[in-house]
Amino acid sequence: MENHKRETPLKPRRLLLFPIPSQGHINPMLQLANILHSTGAFSSITVIHPHLNSPNPTNHPHFTFLPIPDGLSENEASTRDVVAFLSVLNRNCAGPFRDCLAELLAEEEGVACLITDAWWLFSQAVADGFGLPRIVLRTGSVASFLGFAALPLLREKGYLPKQDSQLEEPVPELPPLKVKDLPTVTTHNSENFYNLVAAMVKETKSSAGLIWNSFEDLEQSPLTKFRQEFPIPNFSIGPFHKYFSASSTSLLAHDTSSIPWLDTQPPKSVLYVSFGSVVEMGGNEFQEIAWGLADSLQPFLWVVRPGLVRGSKWLEILPNGFMEAIHGRGHIVKWAPQQEVLAHRAVGGFWTHNGWNSTLESICEGVPMICYPCFGDQMGNARYVTDVWRIGIGFESGMERGLMARTIRRLMVEREGEEMRERIMCLKEKAGVSQQEGGSSHHYLESLITYILSF
Ligand code: UDX
């Protein structure tokens, strides 16, 4: 980061950051905070955040953390209905956020700009009210944003709601997506979902700029399309997490046994299995996955997050005979140091839900994927992995243990997997080049700093 160091401007300039309080959103926002901090261009960084899932300030002594009340009940905080969660969060936090901002702006230190997650739907109006520029952080891929932006058109054309008979049909407006890949979620009222997305797109359009956790060589064509349709300054400076060694932004404690266990395994032999921080599944699905892993005869490191299986505390739902069947070939943990795991020489594949952070982290370590998307942007991310970058295998026809075991072997031991490994190594290299002097992410980071300092 030395290359970005510049003289501190005469007038100290402070940045205010406002993440959405869930793991997949806090990680990239705090990584961004670290990137901007290390440029030396800003006098201080303040992170305003709801009480829920508060980051641990001792992990980030160079930032100021300001909690605001979120008024969430226990049920609201733990709901798996992301639309209901985002709606109530936005409703409850608007007032406290405005009050907090008013206090900060009354202080002597000048604020350069506010950077908020795209899902804070009131933050543009609040920033406008104070005459403060707002830059949006989109934590997902560029392609997923285009998918969200196209939802009204796709509804008009009859692609949505998805009909079983049309799931395999292509969507020519959003190549290479099929109808089944369109970004949808399970919620008690889908109209709320469409309204929420429309507001996110509208508020992003009226912002002063947009930061992507992506890079030019990865998403060239979606970026070109975005720039044609949304003429706002935008900066593809990702992958964020590669500006630093392993991050300390995890909300859950990492299990410390993962790396010592991997140390005992042969190179590229282990399948890492994790479905992120939000996905929930039924007991039957979980048991099919367990048998798929057992029948594949491959070593595996499996993250079974408490809460992953509906109605189950942790491992009591594992099928009878499973532990005997794997003969010590597997290691199960509640939460792993994922970036370190993916970088470990023993890991040869990643069975993932294709959250954007996981997808990027896998690309950056050259680990090909088995795609198991569940909701929202994950299906589209998976389509890019399998059909555009060709660095992973999807399940196109059902999910039963035999198919799972075969898919694991295709990725881990067959030529097909080897070819994917070669392709993903090229992307890994491109990600690295993008952050070096002369690379695209390096260039956009420089432009972002200049842009913020121009306010
Ligand atoms: C959510 C949505 O589900 C996803 O679709 C969207 O793209 C981002 O927000 P999440 O499900 O948590 O995210 O997945 P992901 O984006 O992959 O983020 C998970 C983060 O948790 C990653 O940074 C990963 O490194 C970390 N993680 C995951 C761990 O540190 N340990 C683990 O065991 C699993």
Q: Overview of this structure, please?
A:
The structure is a single chain. The chain has a seven-stranded parallel beta sheet with strand order 3-2-1-4-5-6-7, with helices on both faces. Helix 1 links the parallel strand 1 (14-18) and strand 2 (44-50). By secondary structure, the chain is α/β, with parallel strands linked by helices. It contains 17 helices and 13 strands. The chain starts with 13 loop residues before the first strand and ends with a helix. 42% of the residues lie in helices and 13% in strands. The longest helix is centred in the first third of the chain and has 25 residues, at 82-106. Uridine-5'-diphosphate-xylopyranose binds at residues 23-25, 27, 139-140, 250, 274, 276-278, 303, 335-336, 338-339, 355-358, 361, 376-378.
Order of helices and strands: EHEEHHEHEHHHEHEHEHEHEHEHEHEHHH
Strand neighbour order, sheet with most strands: 3-2-1-4-5-6-7
Give the total of domains. Answer: 2
Measured between the Cα atoms of the first and last residue, the distance is: 23 Å
* Contiguous uncertain segments of 5+ residues: none
The overall pLDDT, averaged over residues, is 95
Backbone structural class: alpha/beta
Main sheet characteristics: 7 strands, parallel
Strand content: 5-15%
**What would you call the shape?**
globular
